[in-house]
Design a protein that fits this description.
Layout lengths: L21 E14 L2 E14 L3 E5 L6 H8 L7 E6 L2 E2 L5 H11 E4 L11 H6 L9 H14 L15 H13 L5 E5 L7 H18 L2 E5 L3 H4 L4 E6 L2 E7 L3 H18 L6 H13 L12
Parallel strand pairs: 3-8, 3-9, 6-7, 7-8
Antiparallel strand pairs: 1-2, 1-4, 4-5, 9-10
Length: about 300
C-alpha cells in the first residue's frame, strides 16, 4: 500500500524507495505541449537525481527544455508522463491546492528580474510570503530583519526597490526566497540582469548560503564559469540530458567560502570588511596603541 503524507503536509504518494535522500528525483519525465495542430516535445525522458544539500547548475541553448525542467522542478507545472518526486512526494498525485502549498513551503524562487513589489520597501517584500502562513507579526519582522542582515542589507531594509541597486534588489529577492525555509532554492538566470562584478558577488552569496545552511541549490545559467561553481553541471539539449560533469570551479568556491567564514567568525565582521579592520589596526599602530582585534558580535 502506498503511504500518504500526514494531514498537515501536502497529500500525495511517497517515493517508493528511501535508501538515498533525494530531494529532487526525475524518472523518465516527459513534457509535451500542443500548439495548434503541432505537438512540441519540451522534455523527452529526463532522469535526474539530486541529493539533499547538493548544488547543481543547468545549462543549455534556448529551446533546449531547461526552463520547462525548472518549471516542473518548482511545481509550476507537472510532467506529461514519468515521475517527479520532490522531497519524497510524487508531484503528479497532488491536487492544485496541495501543489501550491508544497511549492510555497519547499521551493524558494529567485528570478532574473527580481519581481519585487515596487510600493513595498525591502523588509516588507521579504515579509510578504510569510503573511500567507501562520507566523505572527512580530516573528515575521524579526525573521525578515535577520534574513536581510544575512544577505548584507541590514542598513537598506527600509528602502524601496527603486532606491536600491540591481545587486541589492537581487539580495532582497534572495532573502524573500529564504523566508519560508525552503528545501530547494531555484535560481533562474539570477545574474542575467547584473554586471559581471555584481553577478559574481550574488553567485558567491548563493553558494555561501548553500554551504552554511545546507540548502539544495539549483541554478539555471548561460555563464559557464557560474555554472561550474556548482557540484555538478547538467547540460540539456533537445529535451534530453546531453551530459553531466563535475563543476570545475566548485572546490575553489568551497575553499574561498571557508576562508571568508573563518574570517567572519574570528572578527565578527561581515564579508568584504577585512580592509576596514586592517585600517583600524594600522591606525592604532601609528598611535602607539596595542591592537586588540575586532570584537565578536553578540
Amino acid at each position: 500500500m502506498v503511504a500518504k503524507e500526514k494531514k498537515e503536509e501536502a497529500h500525495g504518494h511517497k517515493h517508493p524507495t528511501a535508501q538515498v535522500d533525494y530531494v529532487i528525483d526525475f524518472r523518465d519525465v516527459t513534457k509535451t505541449y500542443k500548439l495548434g495542430v503541432t505537438t512540441v516535445e519540451a522534455l523527452r525522458g529526463i532522469n535526474l537525481s539530486v541529493e539533499r544539500g547538493d548544488s547543481i547548475s543547468i545549462m543549455g541553448p534556448s529551446g533546449s527544455g531547461k526552463s520547462t525542467l525548472l518549471h516542473i522542478m518548482g511545481c509550476l507545472d507537472v510532467p506529461t508522463s514519468g515521475k517527479y518526486y520532490l522531497d519524497g512526494l510524487d508531484v503528479a498525485t497532488l491536487g492544485s491546492d496541495d501543489l501550491a502549498r508544497t511549492r510555497g513551503k519547499k521551493i524558494g524562487f529567485v528570478f532574473q528580474f527580481f519581481h519585487l513589489i515596487p510600493s513595498l520597501n525591502a523588509i516588507e517584500n521579504v515579509i510578504l510570503p510569510m503573511m500567507f502562513d501562520s507566523i505572527g507579526e512580530e516573528e515575521r519582522w524579526k525573521k525578515a530583519e535577520a534574513l536581510l542582515d544575512k544577505v548584507g542589507l541590514k542598513s537598506r531594509m527600509y528602502h524601496k526597490p527603486n532606491e536600491l541597486s540591481g545587486g541589492e534588489r537581487q539580495r532582497v529577492a534572495i532573502a524573500r526566497a529564504l523566508s519560508q525555509n525552503p528545501t530547494v532554492l531555484l535560481a533562474d538566470e539570477p545574474t542575467g540582469n547584473l554586471d559581471s562584478a555584481v553577478g559574481a558577488e550574488i553567485i558567491k552569496l548563493f553558494h555561501k548560503l548553500h554551504h552554511e545552511e545546507g540548502i539544495t541549490l539549483v541554478t539555471v545559467t548561460h555563464d559557464p564559469q557560474i555554472a561550474h561553481y556548482a557540484d555538478r553541471v547538467i547540460f540539456i539539449k533537445d529535451g534530453l540530458i546531453e551530459k553531466i560533469t563535475k563543476g570545475t570551479e566548485h572546490e575553489r568556491m568551497v575553499e574561498m567560502l571557508k576562508k571568508e567564514i573563518s574570517f567572519e567568525q574570528a572578527t565578527g565582521l561581515g564579508a568584504g570588511e577585512e580592509e576596514k579592520l586592517l585600517k583600524v589596526l594600522e591606525k592604532d599602530g601609528k598611535n602607539g596603541k596595542k591592537p586588540e582585534g575586532a570584537k565578536k558580535k553578540r
